[in-house]
Structure formats: structure tokens, C-alpha cells
Amino acid sequence: MQLVTIDDIRSAAHRIRPRVVRTPLVPATWGDDDRPLWIKPENLQAVGAFKVRGAFSALTALAGPVEDVVAYSSGNHAQAVAYAAATFGMRAHIVMPEETPEVKVAATRAHGARVVLCGAGQREMVAAEVVAKTGGVMIPPFDHPQVIAGQGTIGLEIAEDLPEVRTVLIPVSGGGLASGVGVAIRALCPQAAVYGVEPELAADTAESLRTGRRADWPVAQRNRTIADGLRSQPSELTFTHLQRVLDGVLTVTEDEIRSAVREFALRGHLVSEPSGAVALAAYRQGGTPPGPTAVILSGGNIEPRLLTEILAG
Length: 313
Known about the structure:
Belongs to the serine/threonine dehydratase family. It comes from Mycolicibacterium chlorophenolicum. GO terms for molecular function: ATP binding; L-serine ammonia-lyase activity; magnesium ion binding; pyridoxal phosphate binding; serine racemase activity; threonine deaminase activity; threonine racemase activity. The protein is built from 13 helices and 10 strands. By secondary structure, it is α/β, with parallel strands linked by helices. The strands form 2 sheets. The protein has a 6-stranded mixed β-sheet with strand order 1-2-10-7-8-9.
């Protein structure tokens, strides 16, 4: 198994630098006095989420000319691969679950991708069929060393901007973001505690780390959470990374997620989708160590109607 190193992340950072936004680490003056709060707003990326880093990392690492790429995703990875592929003149074929928010489906199509909708739990199978038909290269959402390395560039930037960071809170779904950021923080800020965060209704990673083996939660069970981007489960590759780099996984309720979306909007003037707000929700629980705390706002692609509903309380 090829595990990602800090050198892999630095190499990815060099390759993707012309293509992605180096997001600022923004101080949140309303944070707790003993835990100064800093926000890494990945909603400012061109596709509204961190996934563009991993997409460009994977595509720029391909050997030889490629005409077709295939991806499966509930939304943000789909948009990222579609956007990156269009940048390089490649055709993108994106498999998305039928329950994906329309705002994410429309955005993926707007980048020129062909979208193939599928039933719940079928996206990997359907994507494999698309690969067979098109001869395209598969770019998975997290189970890929170059994707993990690309997401890890967020940790590289946090370490550069806040070397004294004491706690880093990272949304967890398939585990690519937490794996990459965790590798970077462990290498560059060894004093920092690194926690993954996931919804209570999709807490398979928390269970997996407790038991030492990957838990398999049914799709219908994971799909209960409002955080549609956090319904995947870690792969063998990402789970191995998470076991090495995380101090633990914190879980948050649906009400806490909604509250964090409101807080980002009303206090931080930042739009966050529910999946992107879980790190702030965990911070608000108050159980993390004192000292500077960085939370990753992983994405801001939210249906306007849902945002209106959440802001109305």
C-alpha cells in the first residue's frame, strides 16, 4: 500500500499552485478566549470546495495524454473533476447519486461534464461500467494517493500560516481530506492534535477507529444526515492513513450542524454547506484542547432553499 508522505504533498502543492486558490487562514474574533479560532475557507475555491485540489493533483500526475476521465461523487468531487478536466481539454463523465442536491448536479454539467445519475449505493459500479465503455481514467473521490496528496496541501498551508496551531478539526467522509491534512500536520506541527469530525448519523469512521477495523454502515443509514457530502465510508487506503494521523473522531448532531451553518453565515459572513460546517460544530462542543484551533470549512455548495431554511432557524 502506497502511503502519502509530506514530500508527496509538497510535490502536489507545486503542481496545483497555478490552478487553485491558496485560501487564507481567517481569524474568527468571536471564538473562545482560550481556543482562538481560525477558519480555512475552502468554499472560496472555484468549484466551492476543497475537492479541486485533489482533482488537479491527480490529473497533473497522469502519465501520457488522456482524453476521457471518469469520477463518481455526491457533488463536490464531481464538480472538481469536471472543472479540472475542462481546464485540460479532457472529456469528463461523472456518476452521481440521484439524491444529489440539484445545485451540485447543475454545477457539474455547467463545467461541460456528462452526468450519469444512479441509484443509492451504485455509483462505484456504474462508474466502472462507464470506464469500460469510454476507456477513460478513473479519478476516485478519495481512494487515490494523488487525490490524498492534493487535499493535504490544505494542511501544508495551515502549518505555514499558523505554525503554533494546537488543534486541527477536519470533516471526514471517505477520509481523503483528513488523511492528507493529517499527514501534513503530523510532519510540520507535531504538537497539534488532529481530529476528524463526522455526523452522528454517519459515524462509521468513529466506530471503525474504536474497533480497529472498517465498519460497514448501510447506505440508507448514512443517508439520514443533512451533510450529504459526508455519507461515504473510508477505503482501506484512507483508513490506514486515519489510524496513523488522527487523535480521534468527534461526532456532531444534525442540530449542531445547522447551528454551525448559521454561525458561519451570520458571524463569519461565509456560506457553508452542512458538510462544510461540521468542524465548527465540533469546536462549539468545547471539548478540544486550549490553544489556537483551525477548522476547515470544506465546501459551500448548498441549495438556496436549504440555506434559507437553516438561517430562519
